[in-house]
């Protein structure tokens, strides 16, 4: 069973979501990551659960979960790289759908990564780019931004993405004389 199967099985419509299960049955589902709602639900549903040993770190640090080298490789996998929820043919949120439409409308060639398919990458890329939301557009390994930044940039200059690539190439030529 993959991540998308779990999303459908548990009726998840928003990421992140917190789902409390007992014996395979949903006790409660919390869309988002509200710590107060999480704590209240945990208090309600944790009765009879034995505490675990917290002396060992149970969740690895994100930089350890997804090595920086892998994230660097992913953001440079194509000249224009879109990290989104879902796929271009089946976006899982309206922001991803809108950004795909904008890129297609401007005939911008891009590759994509579905962050719902890999939780470690989803968490890691938000830290790596210091950008907490999706979609994220990366050009030549550098974060351009999300939907609003791309929409505003292309609205002001239809060659916004192409110019971003040209500016980076020119900057590299200035620092690396032949």
UniProtKB/TrEMBL annotation:
Keywords: Iron, Iron-sulfur, Metal-binding. Coiled coil: none annotated. InterPro entries: Glutaredoxin, GRX_PICOT-like, Monothiol_GRX-rel, Thioredoxin-like_sf. Pfam families: Glutaredoxin. One of its GO terms (cellular component) is nucleus. One of its GO terms (biological process) is intracellular iron ion homeostasis. It comes from the Eukaryota. This is Glutaredoxin. It comes from Aspergillus indologenus CBS 114.80.
């Amino acid at each position: 069973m993959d991540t998308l199967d779990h999303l459908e099985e548990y009726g998840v419509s928003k990421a992140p979501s917190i789902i409390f299960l007992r014996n395979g049955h949903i006790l409660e589902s919390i869309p988002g990551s509200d710590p107060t709602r999480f704590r209240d639900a945990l208090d309600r549903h944790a009765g009879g659960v034995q505490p675990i040993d917290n002396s060992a770190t149970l969740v690895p640090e994100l930089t350890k979960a997804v090595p920086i080298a892998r994230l660097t490789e992913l953001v440079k996998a194509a000249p224009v790289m879109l990290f989104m929820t879902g796929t271009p043919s089946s976006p899982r949120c309206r922001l991803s759908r809108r950004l795909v439409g904008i890129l297609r409308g401007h005939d911008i060639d891009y590759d994509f990564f579905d962050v719902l398919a890999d939780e470690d990458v989803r968490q890691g890329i938000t830290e790596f780019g210091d950008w907490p939301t999706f979609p994220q557009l990366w050009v030549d390994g550098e974060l351009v931004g999300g939907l609003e930044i791309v929409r505003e940039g292309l609205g002001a200059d239809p060659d916004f993405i192409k110019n971003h690539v040209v500016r980076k190439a020119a900057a590299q030529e200035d620092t690396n004389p032949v």
